[in-house]
């Protein structure tokens, strides 16, 4: 498909600019010519060209509204439309962040109550809503841990991270100056307790645990893990990316977690927007509240206000207050579902994952054969060994059948990993059709491996050359700016 | 209400396949004593009609002013109708990060086009797919400079947005770097001498902003050689992207990184977010810049296509050796920016000119009032600082008229007593400005 630049024709335009209604002065009489640019090199197209361009592009994109999207650890649940409508209300979109608090009572109330709801759902003392994404929340959470030890005058050098962790965990630890020490997994996919005990010293700030972990398994020994970490004065961090597994079932706060980051764009059904905006609130236990980012919404008599005076805070991690409009959607979602609905969401998410696991386990190798939480992890090693068809080929073949593939090659400890997260919003019929397709592909891998390896055959483009993209980077048209 | 479609019969059949007799059996791995026995204490569930009414009520607790004189990092610009229409295509907004390129060509191409337009506007060779916001983009540039040069001092000019300085401070502290603030000059512009004195062999980056927090357009070419002479990198920021439409790009004046807030390009003010961080660099940093990059390549049949590229820079491969932990962008906001730029095209320059005209008019109008005085006579884009008899009272007066007044500068700059930072975009009409003039007089 042509680029918008290739469609550009000198002299065309879409949006015009109003004539100035104030007395005009020559711009170069106000600003020296040496500080002005000559021209702007942007495409020139008519409005109809613009709309057709982006409509055509949208047709070359796959979202949850197009079809089943079982991308593991990403919680691609259906996003209710009312949330979108609500978030577009002018009361939420049109207000300047520095509007006087008398003008922003609605926004402040919403943020204040969202924090309360999240604290109740996850059993934490408080939440900060400022981080803009899960990874941003994670970084903020580790900063809170660092500040906690700074204030105690302790210089702990290490942080423990299991080998099943998301890649962001070690990066977040390192960006707060910690040396990352990897904890092994045990034979049943949990933390190797003996290994962790050996590594946990008074020089370790804590453990960053994804729970349920990236194998979709709940940490059975969580009580022991918390005891060992706390026993040496460390803090327990929960990567809450997988919180869709346990809402209303258990609370991380009562499991012993001191810090948790959430992904509102996963668990609380705000759409992912092709890679953002998300929102990554950080929740903490009572002793860590003073270190949360500033400013914080406070309620004084029936009026909401901003509090900036929090001397122990880590400070700011972005300008203003966070991705407010994303919070509007998450708030609407919580108010729609209520406590029973949230619990049922987790129950059905876990049921769906176990159902897919049950239906596929004879056709693909299970990484760990036990009850899983909201996602299940298979290995494509049988297909790789028997017919040379790899997990990436299976994923590409799914595209031909109209599915977004699961997460692949993650977690790293499972060879040829296929990580399936079906989500509670999918019906039995959808899951059955997907499982039937996976079974068909397993059969195709045996009978016609070359065809599977050449997939996809029906997409707008065929398999793309990633190596060329990396070796001869072309990130700007026409090749170089 | 909930959005799970399971009927009782579905549930029964599925439980049979799984081999369980109750839903509770799914949670056997969670120790019994940690399982919640009673329901969470949340307000009762609502139907769609009820929740819409509730949210409308909360939204109406906000007062949307007819006139906004506030800028200071978020700007009230007109958003062409096409932007909202493109953004409401759910193929874009309900997709994840484009990992599966063959079914994500739409957003990948849109991001490639966005990167191209941003690179051209900033005068740089490379722009990434966007970051969280302008402040965190600036912080990421500082950290990248420090890690790349293996130096630990970051210098920031005090005329950079106060909140940006705080964010850079937080990132610097967590990484163990020193953040040094240097003063601005008497004119409100860069103080070349103070900067030269502060930059040394351990300086990784010098962070400036143009137009700066006072709205003043900086000539960064005056400090470029002094920064580079010590081997440090120059990071030039901005808070209103529309200024790129008329000002000489920082890339043409020697910046190594151009970072800033892209909200002004087609994104509503949203009470502070979501916005998008613009991040552009010289091609020297192509393999180091944080965040996502869309790149062009070919498919098996030689057809052009797009992928996320150079991922070996990123955290999921480099893990603890990564220079950033960012693993997403603000894709939908970047899409809005791209549509906005295509929609305006060359008219972006005219729009920027209109901002200058309106600001000039507001400035003249207020400077003529008794006791009001322009603090810095240096040229500005669409914001300026003005001294007035009682800024709080002025803002109160405006508030009573439903107008959002200016930013009270003194709380961040104690020396700038009794001053307001005011902004005029294309959204203010002459009669709005005249009204403001009569209210505050």
CATH superfamily of the largest domain in chain A: Type I PLP-dependent aspartate aminotransferase-like (Major domain)
Report, as a whole number of angstroms, the end-to-end distance of chain B: 55 Å
Question: What percentage of residues of chain B falls in helices of 4 or more residues?
Answer: 25-40%
Mean pLDDT score of chain B: 96
Can you give keywords for this protein?
heterodimer; A: alpha/beta; Aspartate Aminotransferase, domain 2; Aspartate Aminotransferase, domain 1; 3 domains; 4-stranded antiparallel β-sheet; 38% helix; globular; B: alpha/beta; 7-stranded mixed β-sheet; 36% helix
Tell me about this structure.
The complex is a heterodimer of chains A (481) and B (441). Chain A is α/β, with parallel strands linked by helices and 481 residues long. Chain A has three domains: 4-59, no CATH class; 82-336, Aspartate Aminotransferase, domain 2, CATH 3.40.640.10; 340-467, Aspartate Aminotransferase, domain 1 (Alpha-Beta Complex). In chain A, 38% of the residues lie in helices and 11% in strands. In chain A, the strands form three sheets. Chain A has a seven-stranded mixed β-sheet, with helices on both faces. Chain A has a four-stranded antiparallel β-sheet with strand order 10-11-13-12. The longest helix of chain A is centred in the C-terminal third of the chain and has 37 residues, at 324-360. The two termini of chain A are 21 Å apart. By secondary structure, chain B is an alpha/beta fold. Chain B has a domain at 81-344: Aspartate Aminotransferase, domain 2, CATH 3.40.640.10. Chain B contains 14 helices and 13 strands. Chain B has helices spanning 8-18, 48-60, 81-87, 90-93, 105-122, 134-149, 162-175, 192-198, 221-229, 315-318, 331-344, 347-367, 391-400, 430-440; strands at residues 126-127, 153-157, 178-182, 203-209, 233-238, 257-261, 277-281, 294-298, 304-308, 373-374, 383-387, 407-408, 419-423. In chain B, the strands form three sheets. A seven-stranded mixed β-sheet of chain B has the order 1-7-6-5-4-2-3, with helices on both faces. In chain B, a hairpin with an 8-residue loop joins β10 and β11 (383-387). In chain B, α5 crosses α11, α6 runs parallel beside α7 (162-175) and α12 (347-367) packs parallel to α14. Chain B starts with 7 loop residues before the first helix and ends with a helix. The mean pLDDT of chain B is 96. At the A-B interface, α3, α4, α5, α6 and α7 of A face α1, α2, α3, α4 and α5 of B.
